[in-house]
Amino acid sequence: MVSSTEYGSHTWELLLTVDHQHEGVQNEFSLHVTGDLHVGGLMLKLVEQIQIPQDWSDYAFWWEQKKCWLLKTHWTLDKCGVQADAKLIFTTQHKMLRLRLPNMKTVRLKVSFSSMVFKAVSDICKMLNIRRSEELSLLKQSEGTLKKKKKKDKNSKEPATEDILNLCNSPASSGLPANPGLYSKTMTPTYDPVSGSPASSTVTWFSDGSVTEQNCSILALSHASCSPETLAEMYQPRTLADKAKLNAGWLDSSRSLMEQGVLEEDQLLLRFKYYTFFDLNPKYDAVRINQIYEQARWAILLEEIDCTEEEMLIFAALQAYHVSKLSLSSETQDSICESEVDEVEAALSNLEVTLEGGNKSKILEDITDIPKLADNLKLVRPKKLALKAIKSYWFVFRDTSVSYFKNKESAQGEPIEKLNLKGCEVVPDVNVAAKKFGIKLLIPVADGMNEVYLRCDNEDQYARWMAACVLASKGRTMADSSYQPEVQKILSFLQMKNWTMCSQTASEPENVDMKPECFVSPRYTKKFKSKQLTARILEAHQNVSQMSLVDAKLRFIQAWQSLPEFGLSYYIVRFKGSKKDDVLGVSYNRLIRIDMATGDPITTWRFSNMKQWNVNWEIRQVAIEFDQNVSIAFTCLSADCKIIHEYIGGYIFLSTRSKDHNETLDEELFHKLTGGQE
């Protein structure tokens, strides 16, 4: 028998590969080591043998076979499990990566390949001056979505529209820690709230970094739209299964880029993964607002989200005459910086405005009053063997329920039916031109969804009832502070749709220099001739012509958020006990089971009713328990189940955010909710 002391003293040979750029210098070294040598000591031995005077501080060991970094330098080789057959590569932790931003521009910058993706994205956002990095993540494009036409595959790595913007000289790119000041408002560059251009005095804070004034403009301003030909070449999902492909490639936030097979100079997509845009502020968020706008714009142009013809024209009008024209004009003019205001004074003045917002009696009245709506509405119930039955009733909306009676006089008695809207799906059914203001309610019942339509008489009535239904579906009442803003948001969207023909502008569409095909999805370019589209976009433009650049982008984002499918990420799943595949829609507050063939919602489950969820990593099955003894389990077919697990945990994490927390992130909580134990 050999004692442990004698065994530990035995040396063995370890072959190490050094990833360096020096020509004529060997890159493989053989060292005699012992199992009790720590990783830091191995680094020191190797550097002494290389004998090249350079900064090795960014270098670490990458274990090729196990696909992991040896970052705990105090661990011994025995503790790490390293033996003589291990292939260790001594390589830099920060490497060049190409990122395609939501505005379809590609930036090239140095990113940590050894940090968890969550941390890497945080550093990237600091370089790009995007607040709230937790809303974004990195997406690897699946083969099926790179290009629509096979003959273009050879160019699939290159962006279709722009050259690559090099941002490789920032402190974070050099392996140094990124400036933490970006998460402090007092250190964040300010932007002109009207034009969105950066205030030059604050850009000087970044003069040694990557975000120069020119780069700020590229990231914060929208540029000319792509050609219809380019649009036609891009991947456009036709079915729910196609849409599921778009979300299959999200990287695991709890693992590093290198661990997930990402190589130096690879291209990834930087996208807003979670559709909860917290604390959007034009003064600090010009880049963030522009990138959200661009992601929304491309989602609509490529039909990743469905919208009506009326809505498509509104989106086209906001693009064509505001974002495109104002962006071009702001490039040619010097931005007029408003006088600098001390951050603390600005915050105090905002607080003062908030506190003085309403009088005391009104506030007291709002607290003591139980809000309710009561109106004559039309009830439409689809019948299987007959036409739709449309009948007028007296409706009363109280708390999160709607009751209806034969008439106003009978409202003191028992209702004909009481509908509890908590957890239901609310879908707008509106055509302003035809004076149609409908609300489609899909109410969860034991065997699926109960479908009910409400018809309103006018815009005001629709806005009040629609806002109440939306809040009730989330378990909130009209007493909630978000009710009135929701009403105003709906009304403003309706007003944009309710354009009136302006004869002077619309009669001469040929005099306007625009390509309408650039502002609508290919489906509408096939449906209408170019002159017809131009005239209709000009009609729609009448209601948005007085907005500033940032207002136009924010209005575009709000209109996008109003679409029924907004915020849904689709995955193909097989539910436990089911014999067919379904589509699972994941949103910020709910999960929706959708029939793959018809696209109709089958069941909705709210996160607010969720008791717990877990993953059986052996069979890759997600199991979720809800209130009232409801439990579901499914396996994910179109992506790894870890992606859905991370989506659920990520949305719950984002719901804990508060402005009081000084914009600091609890990274440990995020990984606890999303990491899982594989």
Automatic annotation (TrEMBL):
Pfam families linked to this entry: FERM_M (PF00373), Kindlin_2_N (PF18124)
InterPro entries recorded: Band_41_domain, FERM_2, FERM_central, FERM_CS, Kindlin/fermitin, Kindlin_2_N, PH-like_dom_sf, PH_domain
Domain (PH) ranges: 378-474
Compartment annotation: Cell junction; Cell projection
A GO term, aspect molecular function: integrin binding
SMART domains per UniProt: B41 (SM00295), PH (SM00233)
Primary location recorded for the protein, binned into one broad class: other
Membrane-traversing stretches: none
Keywords: Cell adhesion, Cell junction, Cell projection
GO cellular component: cell projection; focal adhesion
Gene3D superfamilies: Phosphatidylinositol 3-kinase Catalytic Subunit, Chain A, domain 1, Pleckstrin-homology domain (PH domain)/Phosphotyrosine-binding domain (PTB)
Gene Ontology biological process terms from the UniProt entry: cell-matrix adhesion; integrin-mediated signaling pathway
Family statement: Belongs to the kindlin family.
PANTHER family: FERMITIN 2-RELATED (PTHR16160), FERMITIN FAMILY HOMOLOG 1 (PTHR16160:SF12)
Protein name, per record: FERM1 protein
Source species of the chain: Callaeas wilsoni
